[in-house]
């Protein structure tokens, strides 16, 4: 009797599986965790790519544990980071601790797991772009005109405590140009540029980077029209003029030193002594 029940169960299961296969229903494909990012070292989010769903509704869950621990935890927040994501708030984020995580995909036909991913929050920091980029053309009376720009750090980052250090980079180009001109601004939130093309409309963007981590995305482009009477301060031209002048001076000095005697003789010839016809100069010598 027991054998008949087992046989009937196996047959039923095979029929079910055969029906599912005929309908294109399969276990879910293998998911992949492709990115983790922290905007400020205090929180972070991880995203995954789902595999194939096997033609059935599929549920996803992310589980993790910290290195040195055995207790598994499930993702605390599937909403904040958007679809297929897990967000870790401040209470779940630890610096200098490695998180080991994987994603589980499950449907009626079975389950599949992503590869384990090791995450250290210190090395996945990517801040938001800087804010409030302002660009102006300054034309002081006693100095050359220049392009002045100013911006603010991302709002999620607290720079006052010294816990976070940001470096900035600026890029700009004429509206129709293909190549960007890039300038490193260091930690300052102001910058000025002297050499620009008069009459051109420029696009300006700024981005930031922490001491450990990745560059942010570029800020939205800000447009500025450069006046036609904008005077360029071409440092290269002035340097070339200075070098050429120095070379000419050296050549002149060298030529004078080499031919100094000939030139003095030419300009100031020796004055001949007086000569009287029939007069012997030896007669003037004193004899003892």
From TrEMBL:
SMART domains: FN3. Residues 1-24 form the signal peptide. The keyword Signal applies. It is found in: Membrane. SUPFAM superfamilies: Fibronectin type III (SSF49265). The chain crosses the membrane at residues 237-258. CDD domains: FN3. Gene3D superfamilies: Immunoglobulins (2.60.40.10). InterPro entries: FN3_dom, FN3_sf, Growth/epo_recpt_lig-bind, Ig-like_fold. One of its GO terms (molecular function) is metal ion binding. It is a single-pass type I membrane protein. Belongs to the type I cytokine receptor family. Type 1 subfamily. This is Prolactin receptor. The gene is PRLR.
